[in-house]
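So, could you explain the following?
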Amino acid sequence: MSFVPIIFGKKDWDSNHPLASQYGGIYCPNCHNFQVTPVKRREFISFWFIPVFPIFWGNQLHCPVCNWRQDFKTEDQLKKVQKEQQKVRQ
Protein backbone atom coordinates (compact mmCIF):
# COMPACT_ATOMS: atom_id res chain seq x y z
CA MET A 1 0.00 0.00 0.00
CA SER A 2 1.42 3.38 -0.94
CA PHE A 3 0.92 6.74 0.69
CA VAL A 4 -0.33 9.50 -1.61
CA PRO A 5 -0.85 12.81 0.17
CA ILE A 6 -3.58 15.09 -1.11
CA ILE A 7 -2.43 18.65 -0.68
CA PHE A 8 -4.93 21.49 -0.49
CA GLY A 9 -4.07 25.07 0.30
CA LYS A 10 -4.65 28.73 -0.43
CA LYS A 11 -2.48 30.85 -2.70
CA ASP A 12 -2.54 34.67 -2.82
CA TRP A 13 -1.24 37.03 -5.50
CA ASP A 14 -0.86 40.79 -5.14
CA SER A 15 -0.03 43.00 -8.10
CA ASN A 16 0.30 46.75 -8.51
CA HIS A 17 -2.96 48.57 -9.05
CA PRO A 18 -2.99 51.01 -12.01
CA LEU A 19 -3.89 53.83 -9.59
CA ALA A 20 -1.08 53.02 -7.13
CA SER A 21 1.06 55.96 -8.25
CA GLN A 22 -1.80 58.44 -7.64
CA TYR A 23 -2.97 57.04 -4.30
CA GLY A 24 0.25 55.91 -2.61
CA GLY A 25 1.22 56.92 0.91
CA ILE A 26 -2.17 56.54 2.59
CA TYR A 27 -2.29 56.44 6.40
CA CYS A 28 -2.50 52.98 8.03
CA PRO A 29 -4.92 52.89 11.00
CA ASN A 30 -3.20 49.79 12.39
CA CYS A 31 0.51 50.73 12.56
CA HIS A 32 0.13 54.54 12.07
CA ASN A 33 2.47 55.04 9.10
CA PHE A 34 1.91 56.37 5.58
CA GLN A 35 2.83 53.30 3.49
CA VAL A 36 -0.62 52.03 2.38
CA THR A 37 -1.08 51.59 -1.38
CA PRO A 38 -3.84 50.06 -3.55
CA VAL A 39 -3.20 46.54 -4.89
CA LYS A 40 -5.05 44.02 -7.03
CA ARG A 41 -5.57 40.86 -4.96
CA ARG A 42 -6.37 37.33 -6.15
CA GLU A 43 -6.87 34.38 -3.80
CA PHE A 44 -7.29 30.77 -4.94
CA ILE A 45 -7.81 27.37 -3.38
CA SER A 46 -5.04 25.18 -4.74
CA PHE A 47 -4.80 21.44 -5.25
CA TRP A 48 -1.29 20.03 -5.63
CA PHE A 49 0.01 23.64 -5.78
CA ILE A 50 -2.18 24.42 -8.81
CA PRO A 51 -4.73 27.23 -8.34
CA VAL A 52 -8.16 25.73 -8.99
CA PHE A 53 -11.01 27.76 -7.43
CA PRO A 54 -10.96 31.56 -7.05
CA ILE A 55 -12.21 32.67 -3.64
CA PHE A 56 -11.44 36.41 -3.91
CA TRP A 57 -10.74 38.65 -6.89
CA GLY A 58 -10.67 42.38 -6.25
CA ASN A 59 -8.97 45.55 -5.08
CA GLN A 60 -7.57 46.26 -1.64
CA LEU A 61 -5.61 48.86 0.25
CA HIS A 62 -2.52 47.13 1.65
CA CYS A 63 0.06 48.17 4.25
CA PRO A 64 3.39 46.38 3.63
CA VAL A 65 4.58 47.12 7.20
CA CYS A 66 1.82 45.41 9.22
CA ASN A 67 -0.08 43.59 6.41
CA TRP A 68 -3.33 45.47 7.12
CA ARG A 69 -5.88 45.24 4.28
CA GLN A 70 -9.15 46.95 3.37
CA ASP A 71 -11.33 46.20 0.34
CA PHE A 72 -12.43 48.93 -2.06
CA LYS A 73 -14.51 48.76 -5.22
CA THR A 74 -14.29 52.07 -7.08
CA GLU A 75 -11.93 54.97 -7.62
CA ASP A 76 -14.52 57.19 -5.90
CA GLN A 77 -13.87 55.30 -2.67
CA LEU A 78 -10.15 55.96 -3.08
CA LYS A 79 -10.82 59.65 -3.64
CA LYS A 80 -12.88 59.74 -0.44
CA VAL A 81 -10.08 58.05 1.51
CA GLN A 82 -7.52 60.48 0.10
CA LYS A 83 -9.72 63.44 1.06
CA GLU A 84 -9.99 62.10 4.62
CA GLN A 85 -6.21 61.68 4.69
CA GLN A 86 -5.75 65.44 4.51
CA LYS A 87 -7.27 65.68 8.02
CA VAL A 88 -4.93 62.98 9.34
CA ARG A 89 -1.78 64.66 8.01
CA GLN A 90 -2.56 67.96 9.78
Remarks:
- The beta strands are 8-16, 37-47, 50-62, 69-72.
